[in-house]
Known about the structure:
Blueprint (H helix, E strand, L loop, with lengths): L1 H10 L2 H6 L3 H20 L5 E13 L2 E13 L2 E8 L15 H15 L1 H12 L7 E5 L6 E5 L4 H20 L6 E3 L5 E3 L7 E3 L1
Parallel strand pairs: 3-4
Antiparallel strand pairs: 1-2, 2-3, 2-8, 4-5, 6-7
Amino acid sequence: LARRIFLEETTASDDWCFLWPDAAEFRAETWKHIMRAKRAEAQGLLSKVKWVERKFNLTLNGVPFFGLADRIGERDGLWVSEDYKTGNPDRYLPVTGDMGPDLRAKMEKDRRKKLYQNPIYGAALAASTDLKVGDGRFIFTSTDPVTIVDSPQSMEGEALDWLASCWDKVHEAAKLGDDAKATATADGKLRPDETLAGNYYVR
Length: 203
């Protein structure tokens, strides 16, 4: 959110406004998200922040990894990753409703993948520091007040296995001579290597 505001304020020009005619509306909406996060922080709902946009550049589970964590702080004696989200929190919550078993299994698998982000950041933090890592959380500023969804660090093994599978896909694409120079991204799909999806990728 801060990067968006900075980008908007520092690139404002007649040409830029022509491209983004709803700039004022966008600015107002962005500030709503920022203020919701600030209120949650003032109410003690978030960790005691130590790093913002903490960069990681290391090898995890045999995978060269780069990450950019929104927020890392201390909570209940543990260090946790908290990632801001502006989408629908329902997609991160346990699957409910009437549906067939196959569809339920697919939706639950997709949901679990969404939770991998913080356990991966937790693993990166543990590997690069001597800090004791706790469960990460997603902070949804799309709701007022914010919605907080846990992403347990106990999923670390599962998340790192998934990360390694993404890396395998990169090698498969390279063997096929993929002109896109595919990179495994946060959603496990292959994208051009200049793409940064979900704030982290393997390269």
